[in-house]
Design brief:
CATH architecture of the largest domain: Sandwich
CATH topology of the largest domain: Immunoglobulin-like
Distance between the termini: 73 Å
CATH superfamily of the largest domain: Immunoglobulins
Number of strands: 18
Order of helices and strands: EEEEEEEEEEHEEEEEEEE
Low-confidence stretches: 1-8, 10-19
Structural class: mainly beta
Helix content: under 10%
Strand content: over 45%
CATH class of the largest domain: Mainly Beta
Radius of gyration: 21 Å
């Protein structure tokens, strides 16, 4: 008698489109103000025939699972052509969070497809799951600056053969397509608040352009760094 086995293959996706199989998140990033009890985001299953098992959790920048931030429901089945709400709740002590800058985490959603009747008859079935990771920013309510104009505060300079980008703002700033006169310097950079980032470059330049991704996930194009 043959034994039926199912092999699960997981693909990890860290993408701005936040799309996995027939299931997609309703946003590419989550902003969590500290004066809110929770934030909500929608998740959709556009597949008109298949159901999916969805598991979600929060991790830190080192990919360690976080227990102070929970997602409900953490595990559920999405029926075909349906949507659901994910609730993100900070359960830790908010007094331990920084007051003058954001803190970044990641929201992970793992999607596992179901087997239809024909696939269940196969002796060795292969399930391919997808795990999508998007940024989650805990934003202190004490911050009064405008995040949509944060890119205007960036300062560029050189330290030997490295391009230094200073971010004096309290926000994480997401840049893509950094270039000099069309020559690519970096595909993308996430600049931590009140810090700086060094980028290796072949030669010094005096003009750096970039696209800025705002809180809505919209790219604001062709902005210049101040030297």
């Amino acid at each position: 008698m043959l034994k039926k086995t199912t092999l699960l293959l997981t693909i990890f996706l860290f993408i701005e489109s936040a799309l996995a199989s027939g299931v997609s998140l309703g946003t590419t990033r989550v902003i969590y103000p500290t004066d809110s009890d929770q934030v909500k985001l929608k998740i959709y299953n556009s597949d008109k025939e298949s159901s999916y098992l969805v598991q979600s959790w929060i991790s830190d920048e080192n990919n360690n699972k976080v227990t102070d931030i929970i997602i409900t429901p953490p595990l559920f089945v999405m029926k075909p052509n349906s949507d659901n709400i994910l609730n993100v709740v900070y359960t830790g002590d908010k007094n331990n969070l920084p007051k003058d800058r954001e803190k970044m985490f990641y929201l992970n959603s793992k999607v596992i497809p179901s087997l239809n009747e024909e696939e269940q008859k196969i002796d060795n079935a292969l399930l391919i799951s997808s795990t999508t990771k998007i940024k989650l920013f805990i934003r202190p309510s004490e911050i009064k600056e405008n995040s949509f104009k944060s890119y205007e505060e960036l300062r560029c300079s050189f330290i030997k053969d490295k391009l230094k980008i200073d971010n004096p703002t309290p926000f994480y700033i997401n840049l893509v397509s950094l270039n000099n006169n069309g020559n690519e310097l970096s595909k993308g950079e996430t600049l931590p608040p009140k810090s700086f980032t060094l980028i290796n470059v072949e030669k010094k330049v005096n003009d750096v352009n970039f696209n800025f991704i705002n809180d809505y996930g919209v790219q604001i194009k062709n902005k210049s760094c101040n030297f």
